[in-house]
Design goal:
Layout (H helix, E strand, L loop, with lengths): L7 E4 L5 E4 L2 E3 L4 H12 L5 E2 H9 L7 H16 L4 E4 L2 E4 L7 H13 L4 H12 L17 H24 L3 H14 L4 H13 L3 H19 L5 H11 L28 H12 L4 E5 L6 H11 L3 E6 L10 H8 L8 H7 L16 H18 L2 E6 L6 H14 L5 E5 L1 H6 L1 H12 L3 E5 L5 H11 L5 H8 L3 H13 L8 H9 L4 H13 L5 H8 L3 H13 L3 E3 L5 E3 L2 H9 L3 H17 L8 H10 L3 H17 L3 H15 L25 H14 L6 H10 L12
Parallel strand pairs: 7-10, 7-11, 8-9, 9-10
Antiparallel strand pairs: 1-2, 2-3, 4-6, 5-6, 12-13
Helix pairs in contact: 1-3, 4-5, 4-6, 5-6, 6-8, 7-8, 8-9, 8-10, 9-10, 11-12, 14-15, 15-16, 16-18, 19-20, 19-21, 20-21, 21-22, 22-26, 23-25, 23-26, 23-27, 24-25, 24-27, 27-28, 28-29, 29-30, 29-32, 30-31
Length: 727
Amino acid sequence: MNRPVAPLSFALLGSLEVRRDGARIEPETPKLRTLLVDLLVHRGVPRSTDRLIDDLWGGAPPTTAVGVLQNYVSQLRKLLGGDIVRRSGTGYVLDISPDQVDVDRFASLLESARGAQSPDATAARVREALGLWRGDPLADVAGAAFAEPEIVRLREARAAARELLFEAELARGRHRETVPALESALIGDPLRERLWWLLMSALYRSGRQADALRAYHRARRLLIEGLGIEPGAELRELEQAILRQRADVAVPPLAPGRRGPVRQSPTLTGRESELDQINRFLGEPAGLLLLSGEPGIGKTRLLEEAQARHGGVTITSRAYEAERGRPYGPWVDALRSAPLPELPTGLRDGLGPLLPELSEQHRGLEDTTRLYDAVVALLGHLAGHTPLLLTIDDVHWLDERSVGLLHYAVRNLRGSVPFLLSSRPQELTDNAVCRRMLEALRRAGAVRDLMIGPLPDAGVHELIRRVAPRADPNLIVSASHGNPLLALEMARAVVRGDDPLSGQVDGLIGERLARLSERAAALVPWLAAFGRSVRPALLAAAYDSSVEALLEPLGELEEHGVVVAAPDGAYDLAHDLVRDAVYRRLSTPRRVMLHRRIGRALVIAPDDDDTLAADAARHADRADDAALCAAASARAARRCVRLLAYDEAAEHVARGRGHARRLDARQRVVHDPADRRAAPSRPATARSRRAAHRTRRAVRARPATRPGRRAVRRADPARPCPPLGLG
């Protein structure tokens, strides 16, 4: 193919420029410029005559449009020379190479920058790429329908390049120098969370912790006011790391697709040995690693560090004491937090009993093996595309069904998916099912144990120094016995001016809460009574408030380290010891009121698969609300039956019946005979068979009275009469 002797170059990163041997060539008319830009945007792809006419004249072309277009093409050929504008089928195509267009050179330089071996090289190549920009892209055709997608793409590419340059500068240690440029970039793009992340990192690494936290609150306010959303997980995690004065808040990685702090060195002072063992486990997956230790010793913090060090996808979950009656609850939470790909219909149906949103069939669980195989197939599929880590905190609270699924998953995925768990030894002893499962896996060589002991004195010293540099570390070391949580509370007491030895954790936490504003302090009992993490919408429903009114007090609680925000937007108290300390301080009437309000909020919350019913029943039971507890227990038992969890279903039935018997005949919770959703499978054990028999008898119970059915609807206005007879 003939090429022009003199090379041509085209520039679109600004207004159109065409040059030959450095000399500028000017298309004579606006329409000629538009035609050339159109062909450049779609370079290498034939553009039909009809499409070009639409692009040039919109919906009102002249009657001579075809002839005028041919004339424009003829002029372009004379201007550009050679065979650059070729006829192709019913249209035209621009025949040029990528190195002739600044857009392609920009993309090539950016790709080269991402693959550079040093921050210096990355910065140099990004600067060269950004140097190609002369203004807004495709400025000559701004507003044209054919150009809009390319303009949006190019603007995003420029923003990504700018962020990559900032990352490289931070990696070079130029934290202070980069702050003004980041502030300037945010003026033009204030809703771009990545820029806020980089600014917070630069400020913190420059020794400006307070300014970094102020930047977070500026970002949060702008996002709420501009988009009505909370900051994303990365921004919230960085804020928490800064609040904890973590030394590992470092520069961002330059590898594509990886975001967040780089863990360049051990970040938990005094835990080098434990981190080394976790690293070895992650490097050679061999089943399950169990972290064991007393409350507050740092197990959860080690899990977080392992998740940060892991290079692939992490699926996280936590078991709660309050949810032992919710079969498979931790697995539901874990799978709903996972980045699920497109799944075959059979696999979606297999996961349907746990995740009804994946399947259109909405059937009960007919065979546990099918469910177990579906979960294992899903985890195996994810692990086949990227390294996968599954973590469960507080496994000593796992329900029996979750334990069985965990055992099956570890056995079948050993060697491909590492499972990282944490537990308290005493509580694990009380959970016989979970203890036996772990013992069985130990006999098969699938469990490694890692005891988390007291933090060494040097680690406590460093922890105290970060929070209260003027405190007497030896005093706190002696009093805390190496428990990091207790040491931190004592150090915070020093900062507040309180006596760090005036009490143990309960007293120290109480003193910290006393410093909160009235609005923030009012939320703490609610969070303690919930017993688990809670989303702002549900908290607002129980508290009888708007979500917007809770954002500021929740932010204050985050600032004071009282609550932590999960990546899914839920909030929870920072530790179970904080929850216990707060709950113990509540009077009995106050507890009853809280549980009643929470139970009612859970009952009316959207809950198509009854996953909230067990929690609603628990709160109603603690509030001694008989009608509410009977209705919620019926829903919870119905879900258990669908999941073949007959023992748990029998417990819900027994509790619901106990409350239902206190109601008069017109309030009894009844069964709708038309609802026959009990699962047909045969339970495996004699105990389960007895529980199933009791439950099925309850399912077949005769309805009481129609007024009783109305009583159920009053207790649960969002649902029809539940299927289990509790009269």
